[in-house]
Amino acid sequence: MLVIDLSYSMSREDMLHEGDYEDRLSTVKRVVSDFVERREGDRLGLVYFADHAYLQTPLTFDRRAIQTQLNQTVLKLIGTQTAIGDGIGLATKTFIDGDAPQRVMILLSDGSNNAGVLDPMKAAEIAKRNDTTIYTIGIGAGEMQVREFFMTRTVNTAEDLDEKALIDIAKLTGGQYFRARNAKELNTIYDTINALQPVQKATQSWRPRTEWFPLPASLGLICIVLVTIIRRNDV
């Protein structure tokens, strides 16, 4: 389950990519879309959180659906704050409702919990009780040089990131915490998680492309027509 922060701070342009800075959400959308592409045979879902949590895409084998929803994502969709606990809670509920045998959550955030009704650690405890592993990712450049008029100053663009909470959530659930300061690091993190959690291909429901059930009915109709013709010829 992909659990992604959609708070307003995700619009901050501090993620270095190919020599230029881009906003955090754009980096996440591109990197996560590439990750989804490599998860053939895996059931994936998409949960967003800001003022509250929102299930964007239920668990599905349809990677294109996940990528489409991800690429169409915009900020302020569900507010501007950060409800990390609600995001974990909703993702856990989705696992339970979907009877998912393998429960792995990848939680990405650039802030600290300041909204919602569920405490992040309480949510993590519930996730653990339901056999869910949570990998957490803290995103944001940290220190960077900002030019203002005729001078340059150093700013900490990740001052709101609650790394301790993300570390504790991962540790409690048997996962791992990662720190992404630029696009390259974020891509490496998802590569690592992809290797740590190889796809366990679940059995998909199967149905034939050709529907055979109309055949007996068709044969019955043909028999009735033939009997009618024979009777007419006998008269």
UniProtKB/TrEMBL annotation:
Ranges that cross the membrane: 212-230
PROSITE patterns in the cross-refs: VWFA (PS50234)
InterPro entries in the record: UPF0353/GerABKA_families (IPR050768), VWF_A (IPR002035), vWFA_dom_sf (IPR036465)
Transmembrane is among the record's keywords: yes
Domain VWFA: 1-193
UniProt KW keywords: Membrane, Transmembrane, Transmembrane helix
Keyword set includes Ion transport: no
Top-level taxonomic group: Bacteria
Pfam families associated with the record: VWA
Protein name: BatA bacteroides aerotolerance operon
Species whose genome carries this gene: Vibrio maritimus
